[in-house]
Amino acid sequence: MKIEIRLFATFREGRFKKEVWELPEGTKVIDVLQRLKINPEEVAILLVNGLDGTPEQVLNDGDYISLFPPVGGG
Fold first, then answer.
1. What is the pTM of this model?
2. DSSP H or E segment with residue 68
3. SS in 3 state form for the chain?
4. 30-33 long-range CB contacts below 8 Å, 24 or more apart?
5. What does the pLDDT read at residue 71?
6. What is the dihedral of CA 49, 58, 40, 23, to 10 degrees?
7. pLDDT in tens, 28-73
8. Residues 59, 23: contact at Cβ < 8 Å?
9. According to the model, what pLDDT value does residue 72 have?
10. Do 29 and 55 touch, CB atoms closer than 8 A?
11. How far apart are CA 14 and CA 26, in angstroms?
12. Domains of the chain in sequence order
């Protein structure tokens, strides 16, 4: 199945902005995070198809994941 992964802010550093990956059926969001070497606790916003997602959520063909780190500033 094909999944689009969208990274934002510091998650893009040394990675990419947007990629499509071919993944096996039954893949969970946590599997993608592990492959990206992103600790789930470092993710402030996790969206699957624009809706709130969870690390344990099973992905389906055509899904897209958006990952946002905590944002700071002043």
1. 0.92
2. strand 64-68
3. CEEEEEECHHHHCCCCCEEEEECCCCCEHHHHHHHHCCCHHHCCEEEECCEECCCCCECCCCCEEEEECCCCCC
4. 30/55, 30/56, 32/3, 32/5, 32/59, 32/65, 33/67
5. 83
6. -90
7. 999 999 999 999 999 999 999 999 999 999 999 999 999 999 987 6
8. yes
9. 76
10. yes
11. 27
12. 2-68 (3.10.20.30)
Q: Which residue has the tokens 């993608």?
A: 32
Compute the residue count for the chain: 74
Q: Would you state the structure tokens that stand for residue 36, as one six-digit string?
A: 């990206």
Q: What is the pLDDT of residue 13?
A: 93
Could you tell me the two tokens for 57?
């959520």
Query: 70 vs 29, 52, 66, CA distance in Å?
Result: 18, 15, 13
CA distance 25 to 45: 24
Specify whether the CB–CB gap between 27 and 58 falls below 8 A.
yes
